[in-house]
Amino acid sequence: MNLKKRIEELERIAKRQEEIIIKQAEKIKELEEQLQSLKEGNIERPSFVKTSLKTYQKTPGQKEGHEGITRPIPKEVDEEITLEKCPDCGTKLSTTEVRERYVEDIVFPKKVVRKYYQHRGWCCNCKEIKTATTKDALPKFRFGLTLMLFVCFQKIGLALTINKIKKELETYFNIQISEGEISQIITKTAKHFRNEFENLKQEMRSMSVCYTDETSWRENGRNRWLWTFINERIALYKIDKSRGAKVPLKVLGKGYEGIVSSDRYSAYNMFESQSKCKQQKCWTHILRNSRDLAEHYPEAKYLHRRLKFIYKKAKEGEKKEKLLHWIDLIAEKKYPRSEIPKFVKSICIKHRENLFRFVDNPEVESTNNRAERGLRPLVVMRKISGGNRSKAGVRATEIFSSVINSWQLQGRNFINEGMNYLQSTAFR
Questions:
Q1: Is residue 124 part of a domain?
Q2: 147 and 175 in contact (C-beta within 8 Å)?
Q3: What's the number of domains the chain is made of?
Q4: Which of 157, 334, 359, 423 is the most exposed place for a label (fewest CB within 10 A)?
């Protein structure tokens, strides 16, 4: 661009800025006049002046015409209690009517200590010496399965610190336990769930859609990456040194043929080239990026408006051929700034076929929000605990995060299902 064209461009920009300043000055003058009239009591209160909370406070409760919502009556009753005495003097009442009242409460828990007498002797059936064992506790563990699963769920499922879990056990159950013992419970119990983790991984590889995302993690002060691979049934988590394509290749495999929904991070493009998968790019990220461009470059406002319009039409069920035609028109337009053509090339050319897979396939969502929601609980855990201190802790976090969240998606209770799982697999 020569000097003359540069000067003309600057003059145009200065003229636009001058017009904006004039409009703002007129608006300020108008608002000042309204404010003055308000003080004199000549006009109604304008919208930019805050109203009194006492005057305009919202009426509490259900809106008029809406059906009320109450807590449903419990289907099962554990205990029935008859109240027939005067609450003031204790005299038995001469009953005229009986009212029913349901109260849900908890019976404060207490620890249970069991002493087992394990007989050892000759088994006539197995033809060898055997020792009778219980399935209520893992071998060489002082604690029962319920307590161990409770600890694991508190740490991984609810993101509590080990110190708080220790206080919980002392307060609720009067169990004295060290923080080291709690760590041992988590890491050693996780080993018994490794097969379930691998089963979830194999099942994910057969699913048609996978939403994936990644965020930072810490292992003993070193930087790591936490990946999630999630859909409506399974949530897999992997903590790795790498943020590259080898992680999804390791989890999903080169033979994965489903659709991977993600942002525009380059590792997913590499994964697509090395596997049989297809991509669906997240429209939330696309529109967020185009909005950022529009805030910095006036020429990008058209681009952002068009992308918003196309996405709206796609959600309304517009035909894919027409949507792609509109995308091609955006790609053909010339843009003066280098940042804008770079973005347009990525969206409208490089990822052209990865924009509207959700139009043809109802199982595919248009955004990657499912993966971001899947990461959120572990991000909270990272902020509270700072990550993990050992490789064993990293492995336990991967396994339990995957199992707990997958079972939750499937409507399965971790404590009950975990008890059945351990009793059926850990004592073989």
A1: no
A2: yes
A3: 2
A4: 334
Lowest mean pLDDT among 170-174, 243-247, 377-381: 170-174
- CB environment 118-157: b (16+ within 10 A), e (fewer): eeeeeeeeeeeeeeeeeeebbeeeebbbebbbbbbbbbbb
Distance (Å, rounded) from C-alpha 333 to C-alpha 229?
A: 37
Q: Torsions phi, psi of 302, nearest 5?
A: -60, -45
Helix (H) or strand (E) holding 169: helix 162-173
CATH of the domain at 256: 3.30.420
| Closest C-alpha among 333, 422, 394, 332 to residue 156 | 394
pLDDT digits (tens, 9 = 90+) for 39-65: 666 555 555 455 554 555 667 666 777
Q: Indicate the DSSP class of residue 110.
A: -
- The whole-model pTM stands at 0.78
Q: What is the DSSP letter of 221?
A: T
Separation CA 366–CA 280 (nearest Å): 7
In a domain, 13, yes or no: no
Rounded CA separation 282/302 (Å): 20
Alpha helices (H) in 206-300, listed in sequence order: 246-252, 266-274, 283-296
Q: What residue has token string 């039409």?
A: 313
DSSP β-ladder status, 120-123 and 222-230: unpaired
Q: Please give the Cα distance from 253 to 273 (Å, whole number).
A: 12
